[in-house]
Amino acid sequence: MTLHRGRLFVNTCLIILGLLFVITACGKKTGQKDFLTLTGLTMGTSYSVKIIYDDKPQEKAIRGDIDKILESINRSMSTYMDDSELSRINQAAANTWIPVSNDLFSVLEAARGIGRRSNGSFDVTVGPLVNLWGFGPTERPIKPPPASRISKLLETTGFERFALDKKTQAIKKSADSVYIDLSGIAKGYAVDRVSSLLLAKYQLADHLIEIGGEVKASGHNQAGNKWQIGVERPDYTKRTIHRIIGLEDLAMATSGNYRNYYDLEGKRYSHTIDPQTGYPVDHLLQSVSVLHESAMIADAWATALLVMGTEKAKLQAEELTLPVLMVSKTMDGKHREIMNNHFKKHLVTTH
């Protein structure tokens, strides 16, 4: 593992979480608190929960409660389970109000709200276009999809393609073929739910939760300091830490388009699809990291800002006072960092 500027972290472990790194002690040092680490599988990925404690917590009970929450969310929001709540919505006819659970309604409401605030850059109905371009379960195409097919799918894409009724806690689609995929926001929601469980039921204020690369840090680490999270430098060839962030009662999400891509007919296509054009984004912005109290909100906005591109993302972040770190590629192949002051104050190391 290469660290930025060659800095050495003695007796530390680097845990790779998607486009992030957790920098943590490999074991307990003198004077540090005890910790408990719980790991498992959920939502097609892995999860990790690190708990710092004075008095040993009820490990079996905590693990059971965590797994119960995650299983409930997965059964509600999975598109891989034919009988999940979300699958039933996707299979339902248009213009029919469908009552949904508290969890699902909360995520749908947040997704629609961020879709509106981002002018459609965050869109949970873009799944069919993602699949068309070969970034879903289908095989990658041997040539770019025809414009007519893209236009057809755009007819049922957009946050306005479904309506929500808060009073009855129900959803209604505008067309039979509207397909909702919450993979860009559901894991963040699950992180928030697990954090709330540890705080409310077990009074465990110091913990770090990660699900599929979505991270939330509460309180302090075992040394009594802020949790340290490394942001990956956008590089196709190697994995290096670009910046180290100190987190306390904050979540961080990073979206990047430099790892999941393919080359076709001399052009590179990223997995990040612009919901307004139906095509993979074609700009120089490589990665976006967002800080927020909610992992769900950070997750969604990291995706939305990446879709927008550098200039629009800068304006949107300032309008919302979102702490944002962006790394863009220059025309000569180098990297350019764009960081606002809201984000800068959380840095642990600098260039």
Q: What's the number of extended β-strand segments?
A: 17
Count of individual helical segments: 9
CATH fold annotation of the domain at 76-173:
T-fold
Which word captures the global form? globular
CATH classification, class level of the domain at 76-173: Mainly Alpha
Poorly predicted segments: 1-12
Computed over alpha carbons, the radius of gyration is: 20 Å
Structural write-up:
With about 350 residues, this protein is of the alpha+beta class. It has 9 helices and 17 strands. The chain has an 8-stranded antiparallel beta sheet. The chain has a 4-stranded antiparallel beta sheet with strand order 1-2-10-11, with no helix packed on it. Strands 5-7-6 form a 3-stranded antiparallel beta sheet, with helices on one face. A hairpin with a 2-residue loop joins strand 1 and strand 2. The longest helix is centred in the first third of the chain and has 19 residues, at about 60-75. The radius of gyration is 20 Å and the shape is globular. It starts with 11 loop residues before the first strand and ends in a 7-residue tail after the last helix.
